[in-house]
Design goal:
Order of helices and strands: HEHEEEHHH
Distance between the termini: 24 Å
Radius of gyration: 18 Å
Strand content: 5-15%
Number of helices: 5
């Protein structure tokens, strides 16, 4: 998973984020938002669910088309922001998103142990220092 803060969700900004981060041979699963209509044609397959018609998942042969996974990610992020951090300034949003990406991509369901997660954190922190001058850039805002 990789999340981004987008100032204005437009067809162009969504297309740019997808083009930079998603291989063209990917199958996209989205809701029926017009933000994805044109961009979806640039990928191997684009499947949508129609939430407006109360459709949240459907089977197409061996494939289940849904957006439940990403909606669960958003839900966990929102609960974390309101329950743990309680406030996040927009200037720091990219840091919070990166933290939740890290957690999701190294969750227990992927059979990643606490020790492996700790090793990853320490490896990523190597040669980085937080000085007094930069403290305004870190932590809960």
């Amino acid at each position: 998973m990789r999340t981004f803060h987008v100032n204005n969700a437009t067809k162009a900004s969504v297309r740019e984020a997808l083009a930079r981060n998603v291989s063209r041979d990917t199958t996209l699963y989205t809701d029926e938002s017009r933000l994805y209509t044109d961009t979806g044609t640039e990928y191997a397959t684009h499947r949508t669910v129609k939430h407006s018609a109360k459709e949240y998942a459907r089977r197409e042969g061996d494939v289940v088309v849904h957006t439940n996974t990403i909606e669960r990610v958003f839900s966990v992020f929102k609960r974390g922001m309101f329950g743990v951090c309680q406030h996040c300034g927009e200037a720091h949003l990219h840091r919070y998103l990166a933290e939740f990406d890290f957690r999701y991509n190294r969750r227990a369901a992927l059979k990643i142990s606490d020790a492996e997660r700790a090793e990853d954190i320490l490896r990523m922190a190597r040669d980085k220092r937080l000085t007094y001058r930069r403290t305004g850039e870190a932590g809960c805002a």
